[in-house]
């Protein structure tokens, strides 16, 4: 998994979240890869492991956080935090990260 290449401290995580979130809303996506990873790991916490979500449900959750929910959904899939069915109707948290988001 690509994101496992990145390590960061609790302080880096805290500073990144404080810089990019305000009142639970993502203000913008960071340009630096490491900060994106921190943001995506925070976003995946909005989903439960072992649960299958429809695309609509994923969009609804992400739209509460960022106006361009589709890009967030794509990033979560591209970074292998969310997996999806071949027909793109169903989404679920990648089992490799499910334990980390509890």
Key attributes of the depicted protein:
5 helices, alpha+beta, 102 residues, two-stranded antiparallel sheet, single chain, 14% strand
Distance between the termini: 19 Å
The secondary-structure element order is HEEHEHHEEH
Percentage of residues assigned to helices: 40-55%
Largest sheet: 3 strands, antiparallel
The number of helical segments is 5
Quantity of strands, as a count: 5
Alpha-beta classification: alpha+beta
Query: Beta fraction of the residues?
Result: 5-15%
Q: Which stretches of 5+ consecutive residues score pLDDT under 50?
A: none
Shape: globular
The rounded Rg comes to 13 Å
Output mean pLDDT.
Answer: 93
Task: Kindly describe this structure.
The chain has 102 residues and is α+β, with helices and mostly antiparallel strands. The protein is 44% helix and 14% strand. The protein contains five helices and five strands.
In short:
Helix content is 44%, strand content 14%.
Tell me the layout of helices and strands:
Blueprint: H1 10-20, E1 21-22, E2 25-26, H2 33-43, E3 52-54, H3 55-63, H4 69-78, E4 82-84, E5 90-93, H5 95-98
